[in-house]
Amino acid sequence: MNIKKDIFLIGFSGSGKSTIGPKLAAKLKVKFYDTDSIIEKKLKMKTDNIFSEYGEKHFRRLEERTISDIINFKKHQKVVSLGGGAFQSRKVRNLVKKSGVVIYLSCSQKVLYQRMKNKTDRPLLRLTHKSGKTALQKLKDRINQLMQKRIKNYRQANIIFSTSDKSINESVSQLNKKIIKYYAEN
Q1: How far apart (Å, rounded) are the C-alpha atoms in residues 171 and 175?
Q2: Complete domains list, the chain, with CATH
């Protein structure tokens, strides 16, 4: 299938953007870009180290610039995975909505928690141990807090697709069908 516009995957950390994205791009026969990976390669640092050393605001500026550069690279169509918080930027939302099809990979908080509970490389999920809550309860609370903050923007996507109870291959196959349907209707 020839895609008419770039495809942008948005969603919370752990929703499947970086695992589903490359397989979806392969199925669509287009290039795949992961904004977090591009930034990490450019700075020769992991995302959590960039947050620690330079702060979230600096990272978000790099993210905006990277997304803009990818969009401006018009040599071929592509699937682009955005960082979990990227779509919170009005500038990023406007850029990607104008440039392509935005797909929100939604995922239940319960599944996000299961996927994230052993991850240590997510800077906004790094927790302090000050309160009487367990680390796992604090992680659940933090996921809930961030999700409540982001959900309104995530829901502005052209396509909303749940990855909660699906394998990667099921997700890719079903997403491909949703994309075909979206193009047929728009």
Answers
A1: 6
A2: 6-108+153-176 (3.40.50.300)
